[in-house]
Amino acid sequence: MNVFSRAAVSRLRRTLRTREALRFNWTVGGVVVPAARVGVSFATPIVALVALDRIDLVPFAAFGAFTSLYCRVDTWSRRARLLSLIALGLVASVAAATMIAAATDDPLAGVLVLTAIAALGKLASDLLDFGPPGGLMFVFAAGAAAYASHGWSTVGLHIGVTAASAVLSVALSLLGNLLHPTGPHRVAAARALAAVADHLETPGHATRHRAHLAVHRAMATLRGKPHRGTFDRIRAHLAQAETLLHHPTDAAAELRALSRKIHRGRVPAPRNRPLEPQFQLKPSTRTRGSRFQLKLRTTQRLRRIAPFLPGAGRMVIACLLAGLITGALGLGHEYWAIVSASAVLQSANATSTWHRTVQRTTGTIAGALLALVMFGFHPRPMAILVLVVVCQLVAELVVQANYALGLMFVTPLALGLSSLGNPAAHNALVAERIGTTVLGALIAAAVSLLLINRQTTRRLEAAIAECRRAQESLREAVSHQETTVDGVRSRLARSLFALRDAHAVAEGELWHRNVRTQEVLDTEHTAYELLAATAPTREHFGLP
């Protein structure tokens, strides 16, 4: 087979398009409050260290504060679980890097450790679904910590400051549970209603999928919550939104108005109380698993890891090459190249990796120019610390719109932290930042284009099979008037989202010639028809 055939060249051209990379995506809710929380998480330990006249420890406080970048709008229970693991991972990454830096000056040892941290961070992020910024901050913290460390005498102090800052970030992230316990649920519901409104205004395959997914995610946040008060009103609004997905009407403006109200904190009672659905989910009783079931679950976990191993493998190769090539060229700050490679590989396939490469390159160059302006005023360390906090706050406000916008402010932040240890080398730092970042990103992009991820095909085949099995289960449940039909509908919805995700990942790989697009579309169409046929009609909700 000639890989340079016309079809291959056409796929390469589609993969290397930049239009999608530079598009802005504005989200509903979950921006200002998380950004403020991040700002407080960074500012509090920095102010404390400045008051103690320990500016040298500020970078390590920042590494612990990276914890606050995760779980922006997750539910409080999920936030508590994930942030504890992320904080532990950041502390462990800083500990490993500082101890290696204290033990040896060999740059190869540092490259190997950072590569291992990057790969493990990527794997953990994919498996546990950390969300943005994925496994990036582990290698960022480790690389910067290794560069800022100065021997065994300070290792314990550096680790302790990082841990204390991480614990503070976890506490601040969970503090909102006391102030607005329904906040994450309201944000998810507001986004779901806005997504349904988008679909009603501009019906299409993509908008329908986004709307169904948003409603499903919002409903998932309500699991285990009491059937009363605000939670019950949110359920009713989401149920009516799902009804509109299956039985569309001209209600987009009403949904947008309701979305804004819910986002602002007021959840009005639905105009008409939903009646009981046609079928009820029969409560399931849990029994202790047998030894055979335990082995089965272990096998299932191993199968779940398999689709993410190629991504971790790409991470290993790209980070290793980025570190070694940067060192061989004498650019300095090898960890910046490794961080850059890791950043663009926090993606699902070759196409999204290229998009992140474009975003990282443009964002870093723009941020470097901003840093030159900042350093042109010869700021004192205190002024740099203020700029670090401000840049982090602004980056959080804009990063969800486009990754390049976030990097435009993250780059001065990184350069500002680095300049605290070497305040006289501003211009050299900026030049090295641009060179190492662009080099690391291009190496990662090349690795993702050249290394074929065959797991995406297997994952797609499994997703198609599971979606068809879920369809058949729903048909049988309805035909036999079973009481578990709601649970089977949920299974079909989950398999439908998994199918769309698997197809998107496979389609973004360069060398896959057959991603069974028509078969996927047909399967999805049948699934949506079944969901519509088994959904309550507007009459069931007493709506006109």
Automatic annotation (TrEMBL):
InterPro entries: Memb_transporter_dom (IPR049453)
Lineage: superkingdom: Bacteria
Name recorded for this polypeptide: FUSC family protein
Any one GO cellular component localisation term in the record: plasma membrane
Transmembrane segments: 21-40, 46-70, 82-102, 108-128, 135-153, 159-179, 311-338, 384-414, 434-452
Recorded topology in the membrane: Multi-pass membrane protein
Keyword terms, alphabetized: Cell membrane, Membrane, Transmembrane, Transmembrane helix
A Pfam match: FUSC_2
Protein location: Cell membrane
Family: Belongs to the YccS/YhfK family.
Chain ranges of the Integral membrane bound transporter domain: 321-447
Region (Disordered): 267-287
